[in-house]
Every structure is written in C-alpha cells, then in structure tokens.
Amino acid sequence: MNLRGRNKISPEFSMSSMTDIVFLLLIFFMLTSPVITPEALDLILPKAKGKTTNVQNVAVSITKDLQFYVNDERVSQSALETNLRSKLAGKETPTIILRAEEGVPIEKAVKVMDIANQNNYKIVLAVKPE
C-alpha cells in the first residue's frame, strides 16, 4: 500500500521573473533620468548661517525702485553688461554677488544671471542671515 501523495510541492523559488522586472525598472530609470535634470544657470547659493568662501569681485544690487548698482555705483540697465565686463576683465575666477531686495521682480534678477551665464561668470545670490 503506497501512502505517499502524488502531488509533491517543490520548496524551490524561481527568481527569473523578479530579475526581469528589476532590469526593466533599471532601463526605465536610466532612460528617464536625463529628462529630469533641466538645463539651468550655474548658481552658487550660500548657506544662510555661514559665510561665503568666494572672493567678492563685483557686487550687483537691485533696489525696490529697480535701480541697478555695481559696487555702490549707479548703472543703467542697458550699460550693466559693459560695466561688469570692464570690472571683471583679467580676473581668474570672476564672481558676481547678486543682492536683490524683497519685492524686486524676478525678471530683473534673471537679467543679471543671464549676463553672468553668457560671460561665464560665477554668481552668488546673497541672502539675509537667519
């Protein structure tokens, strides 16, 4: 008399379907990761509690009245780029510190950032310490 069951369950587990899913996810993330990173301006943002380590070459300030100042010297918006080029000529790592008051439209700050990007200047956005 044979009492053993005919339906024997195997305790083995096949990982082939799991590895297929892992490889598909890996391919998906590799293809979509370049889309996630946008092309942006190279900004160096200082921490609010610490000091900046960059040497200040030129400071650009924008007031609430939309007046531009380069190192405490008032400059028109149209002459801003030529003034920055003359002050930063010959510097090894030209750096601009951008100080924009609260309430200044973002377009004015982006104008200065665009000038820095076109001329390969580094730009630091000044913040008020906490």
Describe the protein.
By secondary structure, the protein is of the alpha/beta class. The protein has a domain at 43-125: Nucleotidyltransferase, domain 5 (2-Layer Sandwich), CATH 3.30.420. It has helices at 16-36, 80-88, 106-118, and strands at 43-44, 58-62, 68-70, 73-75, 95-100, 122-125. Strands 1-6-5-2-3-4 form a six-stranded mixed β-sheet, with helices on one face. It is rod-shaped, with a radius of gyration of 29 Å. The relative contact order is 0.18. Mean pLDDT is 77; it is low at 37-47. GO terms for molecular function: transmembrane transporter activity. One of its GO terms (biological process) is protein transport. It is a single-pass membrane protein; Single-pass type II membrane protein.
Write a concise keyword list for the protein shown above.
6 strands, alpha/beta, Nucleotidyltransferase, domain 5, 130 residues
List the helices and strands and how they pair.
Elements: H1 16-36, E1 43-44, E2 58-62, E3 68-70, E4 73-75, H2 80-88, E5 95-100, H3 106-118, E6 122-125
Parallel strand pairs: 1-6, 2-5, 5-6
Antiparallel strand pairs: 2-3, 3-4
Query: What summary fits the major beta sheet?
Result: 6 strands, mixed
DSSP summary: helix tally: 3
Termini separation: 86 Å
CATH topology of the domain at 43-125: Nucleotidyltransferase, domain 5
**How many strand elements?**
6
The ordered string of helix (H) and strand (E) elements is HEEEEHEHE
Write the CATH architecture name of the domain at 43-125: 2-Layer Sandwich
Which CATH class of the domain at 43-125?
Alpha Beta
Rounded to an integer, what's the Rg over CA atoms? 29 Å
Summarize model confidence as the mean pLDDT. Answer: 77
Shape: rod-shaped
Given helix and strand content, the structural type is alpha/beta
pLDDT < 50 runs, ≥5 residues: 37-47
Helix content: 25-40%
Strand order of the largest sheet: 1-6-5-2-3-4
Fraction in beta strands: 15-25%
Pfam family, one: ExbD
Main location: membrane
GO biological process, one term: protein transport
Family: Belongs to the ExbD/TolR family.
